[in-house]
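As a warm-up, study this chain.
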Amino acid sequence: MGIKRIGKHLLEHRWRVRREFPPRVLDAIEQAIKAGEATHSGQIRFVVEGALDGVPLFRDQPARERALDVFSHLRIWDTHHNNGVLIYLLLADRDVEIVADRGIDAKVGRAGWEAICRAMETDFRAGRFEQGVIKGIAAVSRELAKYFPHAEGGPNELPDKPVVI
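Now compare it with the structure written out below.
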């Protein structure tokens, strides 16, 4: 466990999320999810966590492992077609992870998700958080639309509202 990482997480907590993701940006992200889900039958959730604290921080939990915990906690795996996708941003580390349920993950694969994550991280390094998230949602939606086209009258199984931890 690195003291530098602990310091960054302790100092760069929730205030950073409020600055980079004010209500206007969270609303834009929600609208992007709604627009994307109009093109496919998949389910997308966006979660931003300012920094780790408590046990996850002191266990030095990697962003990928934390994303898997969040995926499970939010029950994103519990969709009819196994096509739920989590876009998780750990802001203190500027690390994006995409966790996808087995139905869509088998089609896109780790390399496909990684490419989307790296593109988002490029925008984040430039300070373009809203743009990076919305482009990421659009990229995930394109993948979902290829394999799970929109079904008229299909249910919206998961909330579209972004989650801030």
